[in-house]
Write a structure and sequence with these properties.
This protein is an all-alpha fold. About 60% of the residues lie in helices and about 0% in strands. The protein is elongated, with a radius of gyration of 25 Å.
C-alpha cells in the first residue's frame, strides 16, 4: 500500500465521519427532544433514615462506607 492509498483511505474515513456527524445533528433526536435523555430521573435515597451529607461521607473510611451501603441495601 502506497502513501497515496493511505491518504485516500484517511480522506474517505474523515468524510464518512463528517457525514455521520451531520446526520446526527440534522436528525430529529427524538429521545433528546422528548426529555428522556436530557431529563432522566435521578435516584434518591428517600427510604433510608439518617443519610449522611457529602461532607460526612468524604471523611468516612472504606469500611464505614461499606457498612453504610449495606444498611441502605436492607
Amino acid at each position: 500500500m502506497t502513501e497515496e492509498d493511505t491518504l485516500q483511505i484517511l480522506k474517505m474515513l474523515v468524510e464518512r465521519i463528517k457525514d455521520l456527524e451531520r446526520q446526527v445533528m440534522e436528525s430529529d433526536m427524538t429521545l433528546l427532544k422528548s426529555g428522556f435523555v436530557a431529563h432522566t430521573p435521578r435516584p434518591v435515597a428517600s427510604g433510608v433514615a439518617n443519610v449522611p451529607d457529602s461532607n460526612t461521607i468524604s471523611k468516612m473510611s472504606w469500611s464505614e462506607l461499606d457498612e453504610l451501603v449495606a444498611n441502605m441495601e436492607g
